[in-house]
Specification:
Layout lengths: L15 H8 L4 E4 L11 E5 L2 E4 L1 H20 L4 E4 L3 H14 L3 E2 L11 H18 L2 H5 L2 H18 L11 E4 L6 H9 L4 E5 L10 E4 L5 H15 L5 H8 L1
Parallel strand pairs: 4-5, 4-6, 6-7, 7-8
Antiparallel strand pairs: 1-3, 2-3
Helix pairs in contact: 2-8, 3-8, 4-6
Length: 247
């Protein structure tokens, strides 16, 4: 597929949403030599050997995904957020805590979804240690034993702290860095869990069920997407919570 070497992005700047996307650099892809062939339909030009993402398609895909997430949230479904790149991990953690969603912002642990029962046991161990730390027995530990205790607690919290509320498999997974977390998408698909994610020009968009063509390296671009999710889902109360309020 031939790609136009004269990007039309500037012609779209009158659209408020696309203008915002341009300002955060959502349209900047990777060098043309690194482009995945399946991403060509989402590319609208080249600028200084860099592929430029078609923001009309990014806007359409983003809005479609946001609508799907809103529906899931309204139905009380559990959405797992994933993002472990240095530039996105803090964004993912902040978004998850704001929305009270489970999340993975450190390294994805193989089997987190496909061996969920085993992972659950590790989470239970984390909760057990957290509870013990507030008790009298912790205070009675020797300095050496306390250091060993804290080390295990810290290690478990780093790995599983974001999924302590995950009592069952999530109903959907949103991945901010598909290239780093293709395993997460693969495990979700094996368990029949819908996947959403940002895909830069060097990524196969078919790794996730619903792909949003976007720069997944720029902090501003990543924060823009996170803010869109927060804006759309932040004020939504799941059906269960609405029912409890009426009662």
């Amino acid at each position: 597929m031939a790609v136009d070497t004269k990007p039309k992005t500037t012609e779209l700047s009158l659209d408020p949403q696309i203008k915002e996307m341009m300002e955060v650099g959502l349209h900047f892809g990777h060098k043309t030599s690194k482009t995945h062939p399946n991403m060509l339909p989402f590319i609208e030009g080249v600028r200084n050997t860099i592929h430029i993402i078609d923001l009309e398609k990014s806007k359409a895909r983003l809005n479609e995904v946001l609508e799907a997430l809103v529906t899931l949230r309204e139905e009380g479904k559990v959405i797992l957020l994933v993002g472990t790149k240095v530039q996105v991990k803090d964004i993912v953690k902040a978004l998850a805590e704001e929305l009270n969603f489970p999340y993975v912002s450190e390294r994805w642990i193989g089997g987190m979804l496909t061996n969920f029962d085993i992972i659950t046991k590790r989470v239970e161990r984390l909760k057990e240690l957290e509870e013990k730390k507030t008790g009298e027995k912790y205070k009675e530990l020797t300095k050496k034993d306390r250091a060993r205790f804290d080390k295990e607690l810290s290690k478990l919290d780093t790995k599983f702290g974001g999924i302590k509320s995950l009592e069952k498999l999530p109903d959907a997974v949103f991945i901010f860095d598909v290239d780093w977390n293709a395993l997460a998408a693969s495990e979700a698909k094996r368990k029949g869990i819908p996947t959403f994610g940002l895909v830069d020009t060097n990524i196969d968009p078919n790794i996730v069920d619903e792909a949003i063509p976007a720069n997944d390296d720029a902090i501003l671009a990543l924060k823009y997407v996170a803010d869109q999710i927060k804006e759309k889902l932040g004020s939504i109360k799941p059906k269960e919570e609405k029912k409890e309020e009426k009662e």
